[in-house]
Amino acid sequence: MTVLEVFAGVCGFTTVISADPTDKYKATCTLETGCPNLKKVAMALGDEPLDVMNELFGKGQSRVIAVCSEHLPHVSCPVPSAILKALEVSVGLALPADPTLTFKK
Fold this sequence. Notes:
- The chain has 105 residues and is α+β, with helices and mostly antiparallel strands.
- The chain has helices at residues 36-45, 52-57, 63-71, 79-90; strands at 2-7, 14-23, 26-33, 50-51.
- A hairpin with a 2-residue loop joins strand 2 (14-23) and strand 3.
- Helix 1 runs antiparallel to helix 3 (63-71).
C-alpha cells in the first residue's frame, strides 16, 4: 500500500491518500480529508479498483480527473495529481519520491 499526505496550501486542508494495489496495474484509492469537496471525490471514486494504466496513459480517460473536475471548484488543487502519483507508485510504475512546489517570489 502507498500512503501519501498532501497539504493543499491556503485552504488549510490536509488529505491522506491511500492507494492499494489489487491486481496488475489496478489499485483502489481512499481519501481521508477535511475538505468537503474532496469528500465528494472520495465518494464518487468509491472502492472499485482503478485501471492505473488508463488513469496515467489513456488520454482523456482518467476517472480521477473526471471526478475531480466535477467536484473540485479549484483546478489548481494539488490533490488530483497526488492521487495519480499515489496510484502510480502503488503499482510499481514509479518510485516514491516527494514532488515539491516551492514559491520563490
